[in-house]
Design goal:
single chain; 408 residues; alpha+beta; OB fold (Dihydrolipoamide Acetyltransferase, E2P); 4 domains; 5-stranded mixed barrel; 5-stranded mixed β-barrel; 7 helices; 20 strands; elongated
Length: 408
């Protein structure tokens, strides 16, 4: 790209109006817009020209720009736009190079925005309406994203109407910003120190993973409670959609909803019992429920001497073609291994091996046996709601042997 020629053209326009300007500074701005922000050179020229016109108060120097404001539902990656909207959420910037991040909404849609530190933009306040002139639309994790750079002008404007977020069925979610109404049906163990909570939320149409990262003011969801969640961020995670609630306003509701729990079945032999199976200890702090270490340590609430016991199975089934990780909660676990929680606790407290004794008994009861399990599949794991031991079928074994002999 011929940045030099474009910079020369802009500088000549300014000089002809009686103002001195450095050509190298103009070229640097052009390169930044094009190379760092992906702005087309023609749009970059208009931005720098308009910026200099404002700086020197030169009338008539401005070139054609984005024109009238677009609605947020009409944005497309690669555009250079002017939009107006209400800041409905502000989030912690992930990097010192970013001044502010959050969500802006109008009466048609909501999108994420990023304000670069070098933009020297005014500080935006949640709940206020703003006009963004000459912002860049790009794509981030499959959804449109509004970027504010040094050529963008931000002006506070009067409210542009009442915003009524549309509730999206979970089955219809796609990357971007969405509002949902659903019931928290399952909580998962945190896989990262920065995670406050993760699990499953479901409505009548389906379910989705959710995660809330540790951040001041963020609270945990309670299992079994129905929530209306406004302006959650929807991204892809391991090939599935995931809701991030740090951008969202979460409102608990009274009553209940009938959720679609999904049904996936898998038959196979139990080939591996994973650590963390058997008798486990959970954090007793309300809303936590994390599994404690052997030293009764919770990664969030530290040492918990008054822990709560629980039973579960973590392992793998294999059908000869594929393996499937399964997670079985207490109710089903007790039936599969023929041991109640109270029995497991009594054994652990009265044998030299303690909780390891329960793990060994689980292993003896499960390994090498065939099961048919059903439940919800999530991130390659089957969250089991029902599991039945399969009886030995000699006719099926004979059929397999005959097939094997025929192929020899």
């Amino acid at each position: 790209m011929d940045f030099s020629a474009t910079a020369e053209r802009i500088s000549q326009k300014v000089v002809s109006r009686g103002h001195a300007v450095e050509k190298t500074a103009i070229e640097t701005k052009l390169r930044r817009l094009v190379e760092e922000f992906g702005v087309p050179l023609g749009e970059a020229e208009r931005t720098v020209t308009n910026e200099l016109a404002r700086e020197f108060s030169i009338q008539g120097l401005q070139t054609g720009g984005p024109g009238e404001a677009k609605t947020l539902d009409a944005l497309a990656p690669g555009e250079w736009v002017t939009v107006e909207g209400k800041v409905v959420a502000l989030t912690a910037p992930p990097s010192p190079s970013i001044s502010q991040t959050g969500i802006v909404a109008d009466t048609t849609a909501a999108v994420r925005f990023v304000i670069w530190s070098r933009a020297n933009a005014p500080v935006l306040r949640e709940g206020n309406w703003y006009r963004f002139e000459s912002a860049v639309v790009d794509q981030y994790k499959g959804s449109v994203n509004l970027k504010v750079h040094s050529g963008t002008t931000i002006t506070e404007v009067p409210a542009g109407g009442t915003i009524k977020p549309v509730i999206t069925p979970i089955a219809d979610l796609c990357p971007g910003i969405a509002s949902v109404r659903g019931k928290m049906i399952q909580e998962w163990e945190a896989t990262h120190d920065r995670i406050l909570q993760s699990g499953l939320i479901a409505d009548e149409t389906g379910s989705a993973r959710f995660v809330t990262w540790k951040e001041e003011g963020r609270e945990r969801l309670n299992p079994g409670t129905v929530y209306t969640i406004f302006y959650a961020t929807v991204d892809e995670f391991n090939g599935r959609l995931s809701l991030t609630l740090n951008t969202a306003t979460v409102v608990p509701e009274e009553g209940d909803i009938e959720v679609n729990r999904g049904d996936t079945s898998f038959e196979g032999v139990f080939v591996h019992l994973a650590p963390g199976s058997g008798l486990i200890k959970r954090c007793p702090v309300e809303g936590c429920n994390r599994v404690l270490s052997r030293q009764n340590y919770c990664p969030v609430h530290e040492i918990q001497p008054t822990f709560q016991y629980d039973l579960r199975i973590k392992g793998w089934l294999d059908n000869g073609v594929e393996t499937r990780e399964v997670l079985v909660q207490r109710a089903e676990t007790e039936g599969l291994v023929g041991m109640t929680l109270e029995q497991a606790r009594e054994i652990a407290e009265n044998t030299p091996l303690g909780m390891d004794e329960i793990f060994l008994r689980f292993r003896d009861a499960l390994l090498g046996r065939y099961f048919s399990c059903r439940g919800r599949e999530m991130d390659g794991r089957l969250l089991v709601s029902g599991c039945t031991p399969l009886r030995f079928q000699p006719e099926r074994l004979a059929d397999l042997l005959n097939r094997a002999g025929g192929s020899a």
